[in-house]
Design goal:
4% helix, five-stranded antiparallel beta sheet, mainly beta, 450 residues
């Protein structure tokens, strides 16, 4: 399965490129030697995330101190604009994790008496005030994932093992499901290290227990629709990501010497590995986190750095580029180097975090940018109640307006005319965008249907 030509090319490339790079250029790097490293893995830094708004782009990186937000719109002029101190800080902190939703940033940690922190990102670059900071729902979590289509946050690891929260009110999450306690079939799944969720379908990376796929559409009756507990080169099933438009899931086993697997998920009754890929740098190379952007797969490798694979043919990925962020020599059993990657900024710039060398911003002529929707194209519309169950009211009365309601994938689900109220009782639970044409203006808002 593994492509020998890819491995040989990668090794050759490492010897030919003095800077340890191919088709990926460093545009910015930030390190802060005053930050205390963890005693467990000597890492000052951990997870990376990105956020874009109003033509600005931001990098979000965790450290043993807390969360650092950088304006990276012009990479060479990048600067830290906000720092949010963690509830737990210092040498005991190894992990933080992030996800954004509805202009809020959600932050968790997996050490000590930590908390869920939520920051309001609407005021960037000036500030990002905390609007929630509590360990009441859960004191620790290893990873989180937010499915925007249903406004749900999936919490992995920590004392809950795996739980689902509603973000109908983004600043006040509420528990919907504690899976080990509430789901009868949960036994074989157990602890979930990380997850990827799309449209209420969750791909669960459950460590040594394997990969499980659960449909949470009916939150009161989740259904396991697929599983894969035996597969080539299995190890500790750590993380994964689903392609946007093709039925393939990349998963990384956080085990020394194990390849990344490409899994065909077109038939949930027959999940199977169609190929494996590796950096090929060392016999003990170990992948950590990975994300698809279109036909490109980005992987952060401990020790080896950032790797990019062309997945135009998803069943046979080919090496497209790399950049070695780490100065650490390979030592089996140690965890050092590139922790995470975020390649989803509109510009196409790639963010990465290295446990010892900090924040990186990369560019590549192989990664196309996309235009961020202009906020000037519409004016804000006030709707209430929000969340809504049956009748949605517009913020003021209009005469003979036309409206269109779309789901978060952009698909139109309703349209018509109104004078100020709209019956949305037939819509399914989820987040929708309403666009109104009134008084020679286009107005738009989002609402959550219970």
């Amino acid at each position: 399965m593994k492509h020998l030509c890819t491995i040989l090319f990668c090794v050759a490339a490492n010897s030919l490129f003095a800077q340890g790079s191919l088709n990926i250029d460093s545009l910015f790097n930030w390190q802060d030697s005053t930050i205390i490293p963890s005693t467990a893995h000597n890492n000052r830094y951990n997870e990376i995330w990105g956020y874009a708004k109003n033509g600005k782009e931001y990098a979000i990186i965790g450290s043993s101190k807390g969360t650092h937000i950088f304006d990276v719109t012009v990479p060479a002029e990048s600067e830290q604009v906000v720092f949010i101190e963690g509830k737990v800080t210092g040498s005991t902190v190894v992990h933080r994790d992030f996800h954004d939703f509805d202009d809020c940033l959600y932050m968790v940690s997996d050490e000590g008496n930590a908390s869920l922190q939520i920051a309001d990102l609407r005021f960037l670059p000036d500030s990002a005030p905390l609007v929630y900071d509590s360990g009441e729902l859960f004191p620790r979590s290893h990873n989180i994932f937010i499915d925007s289509s249903s406004a749900r946050m999936y919490v992995c690891g920590g004392p809950l093992l795996f739980a689902v929260f509603s973000l109908a009110d983004p600043t006040s999450p509420t528990l919907l499901l504690n899976c080990p306690l509430d789901v009868p079939f949960w036994g074989p799944i157990g602890y979930v290290h990380d997850t990827y969720v799309r449209g209420d379908t969750a791909y669960l990376n459950a460590g040594t227990n394997g990969l499980f796929v659960v449909d949470f559409h009916d939150i009161n009756n989740p259904v396991m629709i697929g599983s894969m507990d035996v597969y080539p080169q299995s190890g500790y099933n750590h993380s994964g990501w689903l392609m946007a438009d093709k039925p393939y899931y990349a998963l990384a086993d956080e085990t020394f010497g194990k390849d990344v697997k490409i899994v065909d998920v077109s038939d949930m009754a027959d999940l199977h590995v169609v190929d494996t890929i590796t950096s090929g740098v060392d016999e003990n190379s170990i992948p950590h986190n990975l994300i698809y952007r279109g036909d490109q797969l980005f992987i952060s490798y401990y020790f080896d750095g950032l790797y990019m694979f062309d997945c135009s043919d998803p069943t046979h990925p080919q090496l497209a580029g790399f950049y070695d962020t780490s100065t650490e020599p390979h030592v089996n059993g140690l965890y050092r180097g590139c922790w995470g990657v975020y390649p989803l900024l509109p510009s196409g710039h790639i963010l990465a975090s290295d446990m010892q060398t900090g924040l990186w911003v990369f560019g590549s002529n192989l990664v196309a940018g996309v235009n961020e929707p202009s906020k000037d194209a519409t004016k804000d519309l006030t709707v209430y109640p929000n969340p809504v169950e049956n009748v949605l009211h517009l913020g003021k009365n209009y005469t003979n307006i036309r409206y269109r309601i779309s789901d978060m994938a952009g698909r139109e689900v309703m349209h018509g005319k109104s004078i100020g109220t709209i019956d949305v009782s037939e819509l399914g639970t989820g987040i929708y965008v309403i666009t109104v044409l009134a008084d020679d203006a286009t107005l738009q808002s989002r609402f959550f249907k219970r």
